[in-house]
C-alpha cells in the first residue's frame, strides 16, 4: 500500500469487479487492471465487460459488479427512478471529459457539407429520421437532444430516438436501420471506416469539456466500504494521470484493441483517443486527468442532467434537485482521496457556454430551465 494511505483504514474489500462497456473511454479501468495500479492501494481489479448500459445498471443493482465505468446520466436516471428501478446511487469521480460525437448517414452528412442545415438535411429524407443513443437518461441522449434542439429540430417530435448498445451502432448504420447516432468512440471511427456515415458534430462542441463517464456504485457500497471506495478512487486517479502522456494514449489504444476489451483495430481507436486535437480540429481532446481538473464530481454537473430531464418531460416530481445531486456526488470521499494523492480540488462552480449560447454555472437551475423555448 502507498505510504500516503497509512492515515486511512485498510480497504474492507480487496478484490473488486468493475463493469465497463466497449468504449475508448473505458481506458482508465483498462490501465488500472493491466498495470495492477490497485496494488499500491490494497486492492485488485477484475474487469467485467458488459454488452449494454442496461446490463451495467442491472449488475450494479444486483451486486454482480461492485462499481463501473458508467454514463453520468445512467446514475442519475436510476437515482430518480426514470432510468430503471429506483436505487440510491453514488458518483465517486469523473473518469473523462469530451470524447463523444454525433454521426449521420453519408447522404445526410453530404447534404450538410453542401450547405444544408441540420433541419433541412433531416427533412430531406421525407420521413421521420431514426437516430440512436445509448440509454434513455444517458449522456448521449442528452447531448443528442440538446444538439437537435439547438438546430431547431424537436428531439421528441421530429425524430425517432431509439436505444442501441454502443458496439451495435456502426452495424445498424451500415444495415440502414439508422440515419445517425450519438455515442462514444471508437464507433464513430468504425462507421466512417466502413463508409456508412460521417461525424457531423463532437459533443465538446455542444458543451466544451463536458463531464462524460463516471466511476459509479450503489450508495450503500460506498457507505459500507468507505476505505475500499477511497482506494478505488485513488487507483483510478493514478490511471487517469498515467493517461495524460501522449505515448501512453497510443499504448493503451493498442491494448484496448484486444477482443476482451473493445475488439476494434488499434488504428481506429488511436486517432480519436491519442491525437492532441481529438483527431479533428473541431473537437476538444478527450481528457482524463489534467492534474485532477477532470475528476472532481461537481454537484452542479449532476444538477444539469436533472434540468434536462425536466426540460424533456422525463421528470416532473416535486423534489429538491440540488439535494439529490448533493447526495449522489460523493464530493467528501473524493476530496479525501485526492488530498491523500496531493491532487488539488477545483472549485464547485464552473461556467460553461453551450452551442446555443446559453450559459450554465449551476447557480439558478429553475431560471436556467425556464429559459428554454424548445421543450417537451
TrEMBL record:
The keyword Transport applies. It is found in: Endomembrane system. InterPro entries: NrtA/CpmA_ABC-bd_dom. The keyword Transcription does not apply. It comes from the Bacteria. CDD domains: PBP2_NrtA_CpmA_like. Keywords: Cell inner membrane, Cell membrane, Membrane, Signal, Transport. Pfam families: NMT1_2. GO terms for cellular component: endomembrane system. PANTHER family: ALIPHATIC SULFONATES-BINDING PROTEIN-RELATED, NITRATE_NITRITE BINDING PROTEIN NRTA. This is ABC-type nitrate/sulfonate/bicarbonate transporter, periplasmic ligand binding protein. It comes from Caballeronia glebae.
